[in-house]
Amino acid sequence: MEVLVQLYTAILSLIPFEPVRNAINMLVPTLAIASMVLGIVFILIWWERRLIAFVQARLGPNRLGPGGIFQSFADALKVMLKEDIVTADADVILFTIAPILVFVPGLLVYSLVPVGNGMIVSNVNVAIFLFLAISSITTLGILMAGWSSNNKYSLMGGIRAVAQAISYEIPLLLSIVGVIMLAGSLSMVDIVQSQNVWNIVRQPLGFIIFFICSLSEVNRIPFDLPEAESELVSGYNTEYSGFKFAMFFLAEYINTFTLGALCTTLFFGGWRFPFDNLLGDIGLQLTAQLGIVWFILKTMFFFSVVVWIRGTLPRVRTDQLMAFAWKYLLPAALLNIFVTSIFAAIGFGVFSR
Amino acid sequence: MAANTIFFMIFSLVAIISGFVMITRRHPLSAALSLVVTFISLAGLYGLLAAKLLFIIQILVYAGAIMTLVIFSIMLLNVQEEDLPAEERIIERVSITTLILLPMIYIIGRSFTVIKDGQFPEVSQDFGTIHSVGMFLFTTYSFPFEVISILLLISLLGVVVLAKRRI
After folding, report:
1. What was the ipTM of the complex prediction?
2. Least CA distance to A326: which residue of chain B?
3. Over the stretch A20-67, which tens digit does the pLDDT of each residue have?
4. Domain boundaries, chain B
5. Would you call B72 and A166 a contact, using CB atoms and an 8 Å cutoff?
6. CB-CB neighbors (< 8 A) of A143 in chain B
7. Among residues A132, A120, A143, which one has the least CA distance to residue A186?
8. How far apart are the first and last CA of chain A?
9. CATH number of B1-80: 3.40.50.720, 3.30.930.10, 1.10.3720.10, 1.20.120.1200?
């Protein structure tokens, strides 16, 4: 894969004018990562349906194409042909902006994730912060969707989504601090490169807090109260149909994939092959050449874990949800920061930089 | 014209227009949403100064957290058109406020004539980056920083105590 990057750099250097070169250098990686993510999302939808069917002893979609892999393409085609209904009392402008505000940040954050060795759209030195800032805009979109629909179920769904997102964002941010301290940098590339020992070994508590909080942030079971179908029809996207609904739907899968990507980058060595520094030359070559493969495999693993959790656990109650975030996760995250900073200061064992 | 100037104009125009929309909208939710747009365009201005941390904080804290809370409370109260107070004698009020603010307009007008181009030094290379802000917070301003954090902690505890009190 490094060959691809080298080829791209070589072709780029042939272009004479610098502004044109810069413009192309901005466009090509962005389009590449956006199409990669959107392509993967179609596979994810099929994979989730097959896996959840396996958990529940069913078959799932298996008719269209080998193993039913084209099912999600057929669904996408169907949803585009559907009528786009706007309810009579809805606030039309906000109703239209809301799905865009949910969808765009989800895709935008992939410009900050290193998917392979040297394969990153923009290596910002405060990438993690920027990542969280961009994804916090999504909450506004959900609020807008809930309010502008002018429907009590949508409104309740929106309110639940925001209360949940605000509560779980605090332990989420705090659980990353340990990783940042060990890497000594906020850049995603530096964090991956600092993981000669994967961060899961050094930050087990941080990982558990991070995983629970991000599950809640992306509204997946067992934290899917904003779209609890037995209470709120479909939550904040009840009134949406056609392509606007598809945008919410795609955003949910993109966000779940982002969850996996962040877990991989922060705690499981990003694009690096397992124990590549111990395997010597072979390990380093595997990391350098096939980085994107390991990245996607690890991310798919975490996506599958999320689906497995969906198939296993029931939904939590609202009061349990809030108490869990404030009474258990927040103190645990603070404890994690405290212990990590002591170990990092002493430089004990695997904690040494 | 440099790309920076064009972006500066776009962001400041959007900030001014959405600020105006914010004070003229009748419904609180529309006002709050225009305030979000103002905050995001201000973040864009910070971005033009290459102040990455300020840009992120502006989006994460103001647009992301504070405005979400404001909109959340507006939604929770579910304010309808008939709940809003009637705004009487709007023209008199606006004209009296304008009269009071007239000296301000004079000062702003003078600042255009007094300040000439090139009188301001350029911001330093590490303005608003994470390193410089961190150095300021933990060396020069470490005492106020700690005092503010204790103040915030006290207010946080105060809210919990007041809200949990059995009446």
Report:
1. 0.75
2. B160
3. 777 777 788 888 888 888 888 888 888 888 888 888 888 888 888 788
4. 1-80, 129-167
5. yes
6. 68, 71-72, 75
7. A132
8. 29
9. 1.20.120.1200
